[in-house]
Amino acid sequence: MSLFEKHKLLVDNAIRAIHDRGYYAAYAELPKAYPEDSLAKASGGYNNYLSNKFELPAQGAPLGWAGEEVSPYTQEPLDVRYPIYKTDDVIERAGTAFYSWRKTTPAERTGLLIESLDKIKEHFFEIALATQHTTGQSWIMSFQASGPHAADRALETIALGYYEQTRFPEKVLWEKPTGKFSVKLEKEFRPQPRGIGVVVGCSTFPVWNSLPGLFANLVSGNAAIVKPHPKSILPIAICVAAIQQTFMESGYDPCTVQLAADTTSHQNTKELVLHPDVKLIDYTGSTDFGNYIESLPGKISFTEKAGVNSVIIDSVANLDPVLQNLAFSVSLYSGQMCTAPQNFFIPDKVIEGDQTIAFDEVVGRMKDQLNLLVNNPKMGAGVLGAVQNEITLARIENAEALGGRLLLSSSAVRNEEFANSRTVSPVLMEAEASENHIFESELFGPIAIAIRTRDTDESIKLAKELASEHGAITCAAYTTDENMMRKISEEMNEVFTPVTFNLTGPIWVNQHAAFSDFHVTGGNSAGNASLTNPEFVIKRFVWVGNRRMI
Amino acid sequence: MSLFEKHKLLVDNAIRAIHDRGYYAAYAELPKAYPEDSLAKASGGYNNYLSNKFELPAQGAPLGWAGEEVSPYTQEPLDVRYPIYKTDDVIERAGTAFYSWRKTTPAERTGLLIESLDKIKEHFFEIALATQHTTGQSWIMSFQASGPHAADRALETIALGYYEQTRFPEKVLWEKPTGKFSVKLEKEFRPQPRGIGVVVGCSTFPVWNSLPGLFANLVSGNAAIVKPHPKSILPIAICVAAIQQTFMESGYDPCTVQLAADTTSHQNTKELVLHPDVKLIDYTGSTDFGNYIESLPGKISFTEKAGVNSVIIDSVANLDPVLQNLAFSVSLYSGQMCTAPQNFFIPDKVIEGDQTIAFDEVVGRMKDQLNLLVNNPKMGAGVLGAVQNEITLARIENAEALGGRLLLSSSAVRNEEFANSRTVSPVLMEAEASENHIFESELFGPIAIAIRTRDTDESIKLAKELASEHGAITCAAYTTDENMMRKISEEMNEVFTPVTFNLTGPIWVNQHAAFSDFHVTGGNSAGNASLTNPEFVIKRFVWVGNRRMI
């Protein structure tokens, strides 16, 4: 049985789920669904990586070894050293691998890639520990985001890539009647890969943000190079090694996917993406560098950059569950999610049931909810996780410099498990609608700004302008009025920002589910690509049709 | 019955045909399939346009009137004057139209646009006359290319656009089980149009190359502006007027599509495409300006530029039918097709049946076939049509300056119907494989270069290099060897060039059929878009998903 046949049911289910867009998950998201000794085993495996070389023998002898990861929980170096290669050598190996990989069929690639995902699954717990100690995500988020959720998003791109590449017939008879006789051509349609694809990772979601582009490249027959963020290499390095192992075991060139790690002082991203053989670039990171990537001639880019996410509060049945939900969204992984809300547009008067509540009271109750969450020993430190880097920490600590009225300043939060954890409470600020210099940029980290507006129309106007000019990935809105709901969604959708209405309870605007939610629309300046719309896969290959007379 | 219901069967058939890719045509391609008095009526209508103003009252009062079209058949001005508008006014009207157009559904747009195509169909004969007397195409090609073939390609984009925009559910219940209870969200998925799209036309195929982008923009909910080539406005102006009329009759804003004509001395293309509200650009024309269009930040472009098309002759059963077919391809519309072959790679020895034929003999027989075609009074002038402009004519007349050995120089060809027709015979040159300065650029017009190679491997190498560096839209190859066929297709497909094998008889490499052939692959420098692959439509809208708690 071929690997494709082995995984065919999964492919079919995934393709159906992509088009149904109801709930579907191929990988179980809770650690307890995996073998009982998984964590114990993984801890041993993870510890073996520390203070060691991360060997990737398939990629040959490196120029040297380097690593600079530091755990946000222990604030100590992981001391994992990664092989550093000459960029030309990485490209050359990718070119060789591409030569044979491009000759495989979409089905063959699909089977092998799902087999690779299953191999990655065997490392979910190791990857989770590596994610926790490089990104600062909590244990459970590390497990979910870098494990099952990332694998589901990868499966989504594989299945959609397979679907799109097999959408037109491999061969067809074209017979044109011309009266007395007919002209007959045999036609074949071949999806042709573009070349080499580089996936540039980020320090906060090193796996979740990298796997979709990586697998989309591979399923389309492109060779792939992963360029991780130097502060967060280990989680994706484990994935790359697992894919390479799967390829070797099945007799394919392991260098079809390679790791091209670098260091902060000697970065290789520009060298990689500027190489003429590199045709595809996936990028998650800053707006400036993302704009540079998008501007490169002759390259096809898929970017996720910064955005400014808004909350619009108009009317609610009960305010506290709403504020509780929003406090959680702001605090989750200390706001280091591209989907986290930042700007809370609150009118002078908010309707709660049959009452109206003044702005100041809404903001006061928001402050209460943030304090309740942070000070809840079962919640606070776990929800906040740790701050990935010092720059984000400095931004939070110097929040008063941003110019708003500081309602809640940040303070250290004790993490029972890790005494040195870089964990702090969120900042809450207040600003007037006119003070847009305070809130018009992304303030990465747990910073919420309550912005006083005249009314919800002004809230919408401001949120729309911000999304249009500075990009937005999410918008959370609360209204009990159907007409207002329609207005908010229409206005925000015009600037390609999705709106999530009236969330309370255990579901948050930050979450984008595989097989259902498009993550980033690709329409505003928060990014030019979307996980996973058809564009995300079909731009990676080219339809070419041959014809012959018969 | 809604217009969508009225046309639903056609939409369904077109969607099926797109995915089957066998022969399908919605519009009959022969004039005789249309009412008997069509030409007589159309001639009257066409004559009424001449020496007159082309009124587009829906677009308001123009700044002035201008027109500079000259018939390549009579070499006399058509003296049609088109309204000239201030670019800002055109954009403003498009913006107003966009505001309401974007609120229509894909089905509603699809119905109205097919209704518009049917209105255009009523003008097929007028459009054909206008095409003939602006482009120099023969009457029959003018009819087919600007009439049924263009309408079929338009229908193809409408149907694919409808399919892609309705591919995901408008509404779905997302229910995630979480053990004790489940989280339920109602989700909706809305394809959002990008904004205003400008379609920049060319002088040789003013309708065929413009309708697909125009209708792809419209079906996706974008407003559209047509910027025709100043030497070939009338054919597409008639189409725009027909669409505007259909929109008015059905109560839609006619300025959803506008004509923005300009003159050679006061061009408006840059002004249009640089306007911040213009998000989409379709372009057919020179490589230099196409590269400029592709480089514009924040714009999504669909380009067709110059390419260098190759013929590879390896082995044939009978050489003369092959050369006859190729002579026709070179002569058809005097080589003014982006699909016309230019470079004939012929090895020292060509296999014909069980014999080998020397290069010189092959070229000699090619010359004979060209002469036979040109001198056949029933064929010559009709196949050649007329040369659209003086620059192309000068290139043909000065062919010896290109550097090759001139085997056949160009001379005037008499057209029985039009004594002043700018009709000339094709040029045949000979070059060595090493003389690539002679054949590495597109020599627009009826210029064929026979290039002597060592063997077919060298022919492939050269054709591949040219396609890779300078782009290619077609490649015709002749071989009786299955292995060689595989090799040629693999090598040329790697540089995103389709290969057509062994054509003889009444079908030519120049022809790309709607619902079956992808016209331009979008993978090499001949253009970044393809008629009509899914990418051609889905880049014009953005998927946005809203969610609400229930």
How would you characterize this protein structure?
The structure is a homodimer of 550-residue chains. Chain A is α/β, with parallel strands linked by helices. Chain A has two domains: 3-15 and 29-168 and 194-305 and 529-542, Aldehyde Dehydrogenase, Chain A, domain 1 (3-Layer(aba) Sandwich); 310-501, 3-Layer(aba) Sandwich (Aldehyde Dehydrogenase, Chain A, domain 2). Chain A contains 19 helices and 21 strands. The first copy, chain A, has helices at residues 3-20, 38-49, 87-101, 106-121, 124-135, 139-146, 148-165, 211-219, 234-249, 269-274, 287-295, 319-331, 359-375, 380-384, 390-397, 436-439, 456-470, 482-494, 534-538, and strands at 52-53, 64-66, 80-84, 171-177, 182-193, 196-200, 223-227, 257-259, 278-284, 300-304, 310-313, 315-316, 343-347, 349-352, 355-358, 405-408, 427-432, 447-453, 475-478, 500-501, 541-549. In chain A, the strands form five sheets. In chain A, strands 16-17-18-13-11-19-20 form a seven-stranded mixed beta sheet, with helices on both faces. In chain A, strands 8-7-6-9-10 form a five-stranded parallel beta sheet, sandwiched between helices. A three-stranded mixed beta sheet of chain A has the order 1-3-2, with no helix packed on it. The longest helix of chain A has 18 residues, at 3-20. The radius of gyration of chain A is 24 Å and the shape is globular. Chains A and B meet through β4, β5, α18, β20 and α19 of A and β4, β5, α18, β20 and α19 of B.
